Amino acid sequence: MTADTADTVDTTLAATVAGLRAVRRRRQILVVAGMALLVLVAGTGALLIGAAGLTPGQAIAGAVGLGDKGDVFIIQRLRLPRIEAAVVVGAAFGLAGALFQSTLRNPLASPDILGISSGASLGAVTGLLALGMSGVALSGLAFAGAGLVALAIWLLAWRKGLHSIRFVLVGVGFAYLCSSMVAWAMARAEENEAAGVLIWTVGSVSDIRGEQLTLVAAGTLVLAVAVAVVARAQGPLSLGDDNARALGVHVDAARIGTLLLAVALVALATSAAGPIAFVALVAPAIARRLVNDGGAALVASAATGAALTLVADVVGQHALLGVAAPVGIVTGLVGAPYLLWLLATNEKRSR
């Protein structure tokens, strides 16, 4: 091969790679823009629809603090915080799910299945029933519960390194353990305490506002920035440990750092909204299917999680057989069939 031919091949290869990267960026932008549009449509519907129906003019005036005091109260104190909470919490779950699945290379690696969400629920239920906590203090104990369960899973799964299959299996065991303890606590609770406990078993964004909403939003933003810093390791990790090491990635350090951020995102979101089922499992799968570039689709997963949670909350409020239901009920109705389908398709592929 002559020098001119080699230069031509290199130029063609570089142009091909650049073209593929441009296509990948366009697909990511289109997916994120589509999810943002879905959030806008669902958010508009959530502002206008309800027991006190509002016109678009009334909603806009209420959002900026003008117009009737009743409209301002409905928009700024009730509906707008709920929309913001659904978007923030959904984005956190979606991003965390994408990190778990890409780092552990397992489509079933989700905080719902791994027991981290259940750990947060157990912490909150303990604080509510045994310590009489509420508000930010209760959310703090839920965060601690998720962190402790994640640490226990980590210690039991570590054998000269972190192995994804062992991590998932240990996590499933902790999920059953924490769920059983929450059920036992509910069985012993007084009737007037059961309603408060129920929210920490299904998940809801109806009561997240004020200081709590600010803390969750700020924490999610900080963690998202940290994820952007470590995101470059996701591509090599998806190729396997040996290939990642050959590319200069410190595999254990990269995996530990990524999973710590994922756990923090789940703990933060669950400490505010409870364990909203299957968002962290389904959102990354939808995002990866839409982007279809073989990557982790982190940004698209966060956008999909936000859209999925907000749409599910709107459906739960207004379209579920005429009975208001927490967002976790709706996501559970969507996510459970998806999980069964995922298990069935994985079993077929393994044959």
How do the strands and helices of this protein lay out in sequence?
Elements: H1 3-48, H2 56-63, H3 69-104, H4 111-114, H5 116-129, H6 135-157, H7 164-188, H8 191-202, H9 210-230, H10 234-238, H11 241-246, H12 251-273, H13 279-291, H14 298-318, H15 327-350
Helix pairs in contact: 1-3, 1-14, 2-3, 3-9, 3-12, 3-13, 3-14, 5-6, 5-7, 5-8, 5-12, 6-7, 6-12, 9-12, 13-14, 14-15
What does this structure look like?
- By secondary structure, the protein is an all-alpha fold.
- It is 80% helix and 0% strand.
- The chain contains 15 helices and no strands.
- Helix 2 packs across helix 3 and helix 14 crosses helix 15.
- The longest helix has 46 residues.
- The N and C termini lie far apart (45 Å).
- The model has no long low-confidence stretch (mean pLDDT 82).
- Keywords: Cell membrane, Membrane, Transmembrane, Transmembrane helix, Transport.
- It is found in: Cell membrane.
- InterPro entries: ABC_BtuC-like, ABC_transptr_permease_BtuC.
Features:
351 residues, 15 helices, mainly alpha
Task: Describe the structure in brief.
80% of the residues lie in helices and 0% in strands.
Query: How many beta-strand runs?
Result: 0
What is the helix tally? 15
Fraction in helix = over 70%
Mean pLDDT: 82
Order of helices and strands: HHHHHHHHHHHHHHH
Which spans have pLDDT < 50 for at least 5 consecutive residues?
A: none
Percent strand: under 5%
